[in-house]
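Summary of Year 1 activities. Much of the first year was spent building the evaluation harness for sequence design. The harness presents a backbone, in tokenized form, and records the residue chosen at every position. We chose the following record to illustrate the format because it has been used consistently in internal testing since the harness was completed.
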């Protein structure tokens, strides 16, 4: 785990939210519950475990399944990485849209569909 940082976004309700910046588990240890335990500890360490945002690379099927299992949903926000538009997508475990009725997949994509994209 690389670190935890406070998230900043003007149009989204992420005040008092935290961002888990990175979580990596060696391939030979994936599927053993290590990532879940690390992520739960990171969430608890933020002091706001029910207000977490994470970013993942679009098309990362394993990460997609992991975050969905942990109760996260797409926020509809993306960010560019190394000149690739929308290379990363944001997920959160709370409603991020200010005053929204709560469409967690605000951009219309489902996590399973996103995982199939390359």
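For this record, the design step produced the sequence shown next.
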């Amino acid at each position: 785990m690389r670190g935890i940082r406070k998230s900043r976004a003007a149009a989204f309700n992420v005040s008092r939210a935290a961002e888990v910046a990175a979580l990596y588990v060696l391939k030979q240890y994936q599927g053993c519950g290590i990532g879940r335990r690390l992520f739960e500890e990171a969430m608890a360490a933020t002091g706001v475990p029910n207000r977490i945002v994470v970013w993942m690379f679009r098309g990362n099927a394993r990460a997609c399944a992991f975050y969905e299992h942990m109760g996260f949903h797409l926020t509809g926000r993306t960010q560019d990485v190394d000149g690739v538009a929308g290379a990363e997508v944001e997920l959160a475990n709370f409603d991020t849209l200010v005053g929204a009725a709560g469409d967690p997949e605000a951009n219309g994509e489902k996590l399973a569909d996103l995982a199939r994209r390359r």
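The CA atoms of residues 79 and 86 lie 5 Å apart. Quantitative recovery figures across the full test set are reported in Table 2.
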